[in-house]
Structures are given as structure tokens and as C-alpha cells.
Amino acid sequence: MKHSPLLLLLLLAVAASAQQSKNRPANIFLSRLPNGLELLVLEDHSVPLVTIEMAVRNGSYTEDNEFNGLSHLYEHMFFKANKDIPSQEKYLERIQELGISFNGTTSQERVNYFFTLGSKDLDHGLRFMNSAIRYPLFLQEEMKKENPVVDGEFQRAESNPAWALFDKVNRKTWGAHYSRKNPIGDHDIILTATPEKMRVIKDKYYFPDNSILLVAGDVKHEEVFRKAQEVYGDWKPAGFDPFKRWPIPEFEPLKGKDSLRFVVESPNARVPMLLQVWHGPDTRKDIKATLVADVFSYILSQKNSKFQKNLVDSGYALNVGIGYQTAKYVGPIQVFFVPNPGKFKESFQALARQIDQFDSDDYFTDEQLETSKIKLANGEKFGMEATTDYIHTLSFWWASASLDYYFDYISELNKVTRQDVQDYVRKYIKNQPSVAGLLLNADMQKEWNVTSLEALYR
């Protein structure tokens, strides 16, 4: 069925009016096609280039144990043969013809595909993306080549000296649903993946009403909206919500702290490292706390903070930091701590004392609180400079929160108070269950006679 131009404009206008944030940058334009495909155009006429990105609500959070790592494999199969370009050779030829620079990423709550080309080739680029997103062939011979490539990325990650620590802490933190926080996957699942499993993923998540098309660069939004309707308008919607049909399971709360302290021995460890993790807020249940978490983490990163002065400047630690990862499904709060070997045993008690004081009235100054807000806001503004990268930021927030959440991020940060920080610490960190792992090699363990991490904290 064809829509008249007037009806099309009305449909687009109605969809665009659903976006409410008054803080959306003036050069960002939003719309939605009748089939549910969201559209975002970021106009930047500084250079004659355009970046086209397609993001899908997919990733490890949609994977049970039998599919762990296959969202990532799917991402690799995206830039392969499809109905319109039926071989890898032809695909590469087309990429060269268009002068495309392409890539994709897979994280816990988003898979995105993107490429940059000359803005005069906007139409070709939209059609190139359309063929890849809607008509992948998943050829058996191409999968045989790609399975070990994806598994090779996994092996490179495992070569990191801290891998054993990260992996065990994550398994303990997320329990039975570890796969939902593990985008890199499982060796056997990756190496035995079949085209049929790729089609299962496609039939669950790869629909216009679970995706967003982002176009950034030297373009006019009216033209992009019109062309998007021409190219993607007949993409059939799913007609169902995949997250209602296949709900993401909730993570079991952490409990039994005595069983969540352990030592990880690895011959690859060169320095002792501690990783301590709490279940933090998420954007479904406690949006305000996700913002407070960012402010608090930045306060503690400042050189003049008590956290840094009492641990690093005092010689207990070679390095220490705290971070929070915003997520739709339980964002982790992480302390990464490298104790000073010269004060090894005392350092853990020093860390525990700092955590115990996180919510005290004088743990940070008003100036440190305000500096954190300013620095976080400046960081976001700095990220807007490179349009090509900035749309990846936008698609991340689209998937893990909402675009309005991100557009209002700076104004909401400015509302965070000292009381908000104290409430956040008491709700999510202080006296709350956590998982902690200490990485040592055999010589370190013998030298310091470490038999229990719990004992080091006392």
C-alpha cells in the first residue's frame, strides 16, 4: 500500500510529537515510521560525510546459556552475503565502490552496525544497510570461517592477566543468569553455532519496531525521513514485544556475604588486584539513582577526594577507582583496587574504612560535588564534537534508558544533592551484599600467606 506524501508527513509529524524533552539539541531530529522503526537524524554540515547506524535491542541480555555469544556472532555475519549482494566478494566490492568504512559492536543491551561514506551517497548507504538488516543469508561456508574469528576475540580477552578475576567475579555476581551479562559468550556455543540459530535471533529481535536508524552528518532531516520511508517503509513489523514474549529474567539479589569473598590464583597475575561489585540501580526501577551513581563515582575520582588521599596518597594503594555502568537490567557498581605490596594486609582494612565512611556528612565537599556535575556535563559536551562517534552514544542510551533520559542528563545531574548521594550509598553500597575477588599468583599467595580474603578485611 502506498501512502500519499501528505499522509506520510502527517504520520511522521504525529510520531515526532511523542518525543518530549526540551533539552534535545537543535540539530537532532526524531521521527518514527508507521512500522515502528525509530529515526534519528543529526545534522552536521561541517564535512561532506554521513554516518548511518542501525541499532537493535539485542545483546547478551537476550541470551540464555544455549545462545551465549551468538548476538556477537550475528553481528559478524551482518556484513556478509545477503539477498541483494549474494557473496562476500561482491559485498567487499560494493564496500569499495561506496568508499565505506564499517564496523559493529555487541554489548549487553545493544547491537549496532554503522558505516561512514560520502553524503552524496546517502541513498546508496540507506539501501546498503537495508539489505544487510533485512535479508542476511547466513551462508554455511561463511559461518565456518567466521565462528573461529569470533572465538579468537574471546581468546584474546582471555589473554588479559586480569581475565580470571573478572570472569569469576562476574559469575558470582550474576549467578544463574551470568550469560545475560557476558557478551563475549561461550567457546562451545560459538564454535558450534549454525545458520538456524542465527535465524532464531533474527526472528526474535530484528524487526523495525525493535530498532532505530540513526543518520548523522551532512544531510537534511526532511530528506532522510523521506528516503527512510521509501527504503524501510515496507519492512514488516514484528507485531509483538519480544521482551514480553521472551522476558529478561531478574537477577537474584546478592546474599550471604561470607560466601562471596574469594581469592583467584593465576600465573598471569603480575600485581595483586581486587575487584568488588555491588548490584546497583537500573533505568527501569531507579532512574534518579543512576544519575547519582555517576556523580558519586566522579567525586571519588578527584585527586583531592578523601578516597584518593586516604588510599593512594597514604600509600595503601597503587591505584583505586569506583565506577557504575548504567543499564536497564541492574547496573553494576565496581571498586577496582590495586593494593601496595608494601602495605598489603593493612590496605584492605583501609579500603573497608573508606567504604564505611562513604555516607558521612563530611566525606566530600560542596565544591567536589559541584565539580563532578560540571566535569560530567563537559564530558558529554566534548563527546558531541565528533558526529561519527556521537551517534553511538545516542544509540547506547536509546537501548539502555531512553533518548529523553540522555537529552535531560545534564539538567538532571545538576539536581543531585548531598542527601541524594548519601541515600544512594546506603541503599546500594554500605552494608549491602557484594562480591569481591582478589587476584594473586602462587608466589604472592605464599609470601603474604593469604588463606581468606574475608580475614584481610577484618
From TrEMBL:
Keywords: Hydrolase, Metalloprotease, Protease, Signal, Zinc. It comes from the Bacteria. Pfam families: Peptidase_M16 (PF00675), Peptidase_M16_C (PF05193). This is Pitrilysin family protein. It comes from Chitinophaga pollutisoli. Belongs to the peptidase M16 family. Residues 43-175 form the Peptidase M16 N-terminal domain. Gene3D superfamilies: Metalloenzyme, LuxS/M16 peptidase-like.
